[in-house]
Structures are given as C-alpha cells and as structure tokens.
Amino acid sequence: SANAKRQFAKHFYVEENSEEVEWDESPKTDYLSDYKEKRKEIRSEELGTDYVLEKIDELAEKLLLDKKEEVNDQAKSIGKKLTLNEMQRAVDIYLHNAVDMYPESMNLKRMGVVIRYCVAFGEEICDYLDKTAFGDYDWTQYEAIDLLCRLALIQGIRKKKTLELIDEHIDTFRYTSLMNTLQSIKYFENEPIVQKIFERQIEKAKEDYQELVNILEMYGYWNLSRFRQYLPVLKKIVIESNENDYSTFLMSYNMRGNENGEMIGYNQDGSVYNEDEGVEGIKLKAGIMFYKTDKTDAEINNYLTYIKLHSKFENHKSYLMNSIEI
Q1: Among 154, 119, 152, 147, which residue's Cα sits nearest to residue 133?
Q2: Of 35, 62, 77, 150, which one's alpha carbon is 20 to 30 angstroms from that of 280?
Q3: Phi-psi region of 270 (alpha: psi -120 to 50; beta: other; left: phi over 0)
Q4: CA 294 to CA 155: how far, in whole Å?
Q5: Is 219 helix (H, G, I), strand (E, B) or coil?
C-alpha cells in the first residue's frame, strides 16, 4: 500500500521526527561488488585527525549507545554553526566512511552524524556534493548522490534541482552508480521527473534482461500502477527467454581467459560461473515480481511451481519459498 511504502521510506531515511535522521544499517544491494577491492584501498588511506573528526567520533560513540535524542540536539546545534570549510570536511569524512560495501557500525554512525550536520547546515553544502556526484567518476560518486537524495527526502533540501541534475547526468553514469542512483530516487513519490528517468532507463535496458529486471523491481516500488504496464515484458522473460538471450559476460562477476584462450566467467568467490543457474535466477526473479502483482496467470504459476519442485538449484527453491506462497 502507499502507506506501507511511506513507512518503509521513513524507516530507511528518517525517524518519526524529521529532525531525527536514521541510517539504514542493512546491506546495500551489491551493485558495487566489482569495485569492492578499490573501495577497500581508499578506505584504508589515512583520513587524518582534526577537531571536526573528533567531534563526529564523539557523537558517533553516543549513537552506538543509542543516545539519539542527545545526538540530534547536539548535531543540529553544531551543524548550524559550522563554517562552509568545516562542513566540507565533514562531508569528506562521510564519503570516506561510506567507501566500504559493508561498513562497520562506527562508520555508519559517523555517517549518521554528518547527515544530521548537513540537514542543519542546509542547501549551501549541496554545491560541494555536486562536484563528486556529477563530476568526473570516482568511487564515491554514488555516495554523494545518495546523500543529496537523503537531504531532499528528509528536509526537502534542494529537491527539485537534485532530481534535475540526476536526470541530466544519469545517462552518463557507469552501471554501479546508475543502479544505486535508481535505488535512491525510488523513494521520491509522485515526481514526474522520476517517472521520466525510470522509463528511459527501462527502454535502454530492454536487451539486457538482468539489468531490466533489476530496474523494473525498483520501478514497481516507486509506482506499482505504472509498473503493471511491464507485466508482459516480465512474462516474456519468464516464459520465452532462453540461454541465447543472456550474456555470461554481463551476468558473471568477471571474465578471465583459460590456458586455451577461452573466456570463462567467474563468481566473486572465484568459482566458475554457472550460466544455467544465472539464467534461471533472473527468470525466477521476474516470475516472482509478476506473481506478486498478478497471481492469476497460469503460465507464470506453472513455471514457479516447476522451480519449487524440480529446480536443481537449492538456493532458488529457498528464494522462491521465502518470497511467496505457491
């Protein structure tokens, strides 16, 4: 329901009081896995210590002790008094702590403190974030975009311009920034520009079923009624597509040549990529998305029942049974 969506977005971005910023500590969708090692390298660089970081650490420690009200009050007061240079330093600390795919609790709490600072500081910090978000690509681009989106959602800070900048630049983003940016903008309800962005990306992804299914999943969260027009697309993927419609290069974690010069796909853990498993996984996800929207289609129901009973991949059976009852 729309109310359930709002409650989920509130949990993800804010608490009941819009001043009380909450950081979602659940793992991000792993669209950044291909850059994980580089991100760790950046994360290990020495950030340096100064009074800005020391105060952020002090407040982060209090968040670890669940002293949210105290931190909210102090961060609001501090954020209003920071100079622009101090606020920029705080943003650098935020981006540095955001580099890990799965940050430790202290990293997350530092980021929560900086979000509070930014909300109190206001729109003037957005220009500094824009340089990372919409400038030359680097490993923190998406994190800057996500912070801009959080400010817009929490307090309405520069929402219109941020969405316009995303619309202007998103077609030039690399895959990782593209997918994670879509994750962020799906929380902006009833924004025509968000519809425009999503439907453009859906059109661009129509030949890459893995990317298409992922984008449609986010679009369905944004607007279920508009998502319904793509049910025939999902059904085509489930019922009609075969291995010839998929690319091991696109689906696997990376590709390496063997001793015979053949290119082999590999998973992130180093094991050889199983194309049959990958294809079935995409079709299964599409089928579950369809079923959650329309439980009456016999062909979709038959496919999902077949996977439940006969798939040779136990992880797919578990995913299906944990997602729906059929």
Answers
A1: 147
A2: 35
A3: left
A4: 36
A5: helix
Residue 45 is predicted with a pLDDT of 57
The residues that bridge with 14 in the sheet, in sequence order, are 21
pTM of the model: 0.82
Which tokens hold the place of 256? 């390496």
How many CB atoms neighbour CB 244 within 10 A?
7
Amino acid making up residue 10: K
For residue 153, give both structure tokens. 């959602």
Residue 2's identity, in one-letter code, is: A
The pLDDT tens digits of the residues spanning 255-296 come to 787 777 788 888 777 788 888 999 999 999 999 999 999 999
How far apart are the C-alpha atoms of 229 and 240, rounded to whole Å?
18
Which conformational region is residue 132 in: left (phi greater than 0), alpha (psi within -120 to 50 degrees), or beta? alpha
| pLDDT tens figures, 22-72 | 444 444 444 444 444 555 555 555 566 789 999 999 999 999 999 999 999
Distance CA 173, CA 68 (A): 36
pLDDT tens digits, 187-235 = 999 999 999 999 999 999 998 999 999 999 999 999 999 999 999 999 9
Q: Which residues of 115-124 are buried (b: 16+ CB within 10 A; e: fewer)?
A: bbbbbbbeee
Own/partner contacts of 30-36, CB < 8 Å, gap of 24 or more, are: 30/101, 31/175, 31/176, 31/179, 31/180, 31/183, 32/101, 32/142, 32/176, 32/180, 33/101, 33/253, 33/268, 34/176, 34/253, 34/254, 35/139, 35/176, 36/101
- Both tokens of 279, joined, read 């294809």
Distance CA 207, CA 247 (A): 10
Beta bridge partners of 265: 255
Residue type, 257: G
Q: How far apart are CA 135 and CA 129, in angstroms?
A: 10
